[in-house]
Design a protein that fits this description.
Layout lengths: L7 H59 L7 E2 L5 E2 L8
Length: 90
């Protein structure tokens, strides 16, 4: 018995199967690239969060220096330096 040549339907089925397989491989590759990019973005977000916390603590420190102190002996602009009012002289 000799083998028959594949029919048009079988050739078309094989061609479409190969095309679908190539499409799935491309989709898998693209989703892997997307996954890596998302991981990079999340890593950068964590880095920016660290920097943000640093700037927040700096901002709170600077804001705390601008609040008036209740101590009338402090000199403005000196970082709350207390002036000695000791009247005794040696």
């Amino acid at each position: 018995m000799s083998q028959k040549e594949p029919s048009f339907f079988e050739r078309e089925r094989d061609r479409l199967s190969a095309e679908i397989t190539a499409g799935f491989e491309e989709l898998l590759s693209s989703s892997n690239v997307l996954n890596r990019k998302l991981e990079e973005v999340l890593g950068m977000t964590r880095e920016y969060q660290t920097i943000s916390l640093l700037w927040q603590s700096f901002h709170e420190l600077m804001r705390g220096q601008n609040e008036p102190l209740d101590d009338p002996r402090t000199v403005p602009g000196t970082g709350a330096h207390v002036v000695s009012t000791n009247s005794r002289r040696s």
